[in-house]
Description:
Blueprint: H1 2-15, E1 18-21, H2 25-32, E2 37-40, E3 43-44, E4 50-51, E5 57-63, E6 68-73, E7 80-81, H3 87-90, E8 102-107, E9 110-112, H4 114-117, E10 121-122, E11 127-133, H5 135-140, E12 150-156
Parallel strand pairs: 2-6, 4-10, 8-12
Antiparallel strand pairs: 1-5, 2-3, 5-6, 7-10, 8-9, 11-12
Amino acid sequence: MRIFLLLFILTFTFGCATRNIKYDRNKILKKYSADYKMFVDNEKTDLETVFLDKDNIENIRIDKRTKELKITQLKRAELFHMDKLNLDSLSAGQRGWNKKKIELIVIDGIPITDSLLEKTKIDPNAIKSFNILTQEMMQKTNLCRAYNGSVILITTK
């Protein structure tokens, strides 16, 4: 009986140390970003500046003992660096856009400032919608008059 009790306690102790969770970027950031080291496909990652495609997530494993959160993808995705984004690459067939600059990028309601822009990466498959608000459009609708360039709004899945 003592052996059975000892095995039960060991199983319970080691079984509760790791667990799988569902991918919800905002909840993960809120709950785990301060205390846990985060890895995507065994590479240390700052999840605050990485936007992944939730359909490509195989599993998320949390290890409470080592304070690690490991995300495994079904297929390794090449992440796009947001600092390489310019209107020339987006303006196929649009005249005059190459002279305009991007003043602000907003991803899921989070403004990406200059200091975050060079760190921020996104999986192109994670993009649900992509809208460009030109300066002329913002002046007409009284939105963001303080910005002297275009604003890009990105919504992820």
